[in-house]
Amino acid sequence: MxxxxxxxxxxxxxxxxxxxxxxxxxxxxxxxxxxxxLHALLWNFDFDDFAGYQFRGLKTEHSEFLKSQVVPLLxxxxxxxxxxxxxxxIGTGDWNMTTSANRVITVAKTLSEMGIAAEQMxxxxxxxxxxxxxxxxxxxxxxxxxxxxxxxxxxxIVKPDLPRHVPPRPKVSRNFKIAMEFEVDKSVSxxxxxxxxxxxxxxxxxxxxxxxxxxxxxDTENNLKCRYLYAAIGxxxxxxxxxxxxxxxxxxxxxxxxxxxxxxxxxxGPSMRFTTAGIGALSVNWITLETPRGVNDVxxxxxxxxxxxxxxxxxxxxxxxxxxxxxxxxxxxx
Length: 334
Prior knowledge:
alpha+beta; 4 helices
């Protein structure tokens, strides 16, 4: 009897610690957000919102943000999300770890109810481990940090459920042409941005750059074409023209090149180094195309289309993906 009374008193005390803190707050880091990429902080969770070990629902503002901004990037298995729950300094380390874990679980549960698969979500909790030097109860520490990134897919050449047969020998060539069909990149800043701003009088931003582009490779001997998706992260500078920090390049001309040995137009990749600088009709670009083992990679300068805005960036091969979107298709030229 005495034990039950003590437990009841402890639950009442914990429940009394719970405090509502007003509307949920959201901060989107535009510098680290691009096409299919989102970096955001959901904060101002209620104080001690797991007191009494009660699972309280997500705040309306946080739920609406997940529904309108996060779910569209994840639905149809298009992306994946990393979430980290945190707590302020008030309370013991163990209790803050429990509270931060509950917050991130609540966000994951809400996404699950919105149709997002558990396999797309990764959760973590850090308690108050990152709050050194903060106020005892900083509303931004009562939070869940979100990272959303896209998934890349390409159709395999041979499906496992197809009957076994000897595929026809692919047509190969040494003579090719490559053209950029469309490209968009977004420079995002870190400490180097301030130095570049001084050099260009505040009209540019420098830092991590993300690029998404579509290229076409044309086998001019066999009249076949294969389209490739290119995605990469690198270092870049973007001029702040009317494009609000975005720069893009429209469809460009065909650029001729020759490989060391004959290969198929679908055998390039799976990575590519890309360096670009452009503004308006002026654009200078270099690429290094990865080729199959035993064939030297292709390094060349290419012309692209008109640049919208202005940017300069380099994307190393090890942080890139260059994958075919389709099998080679007949192509008679532009």
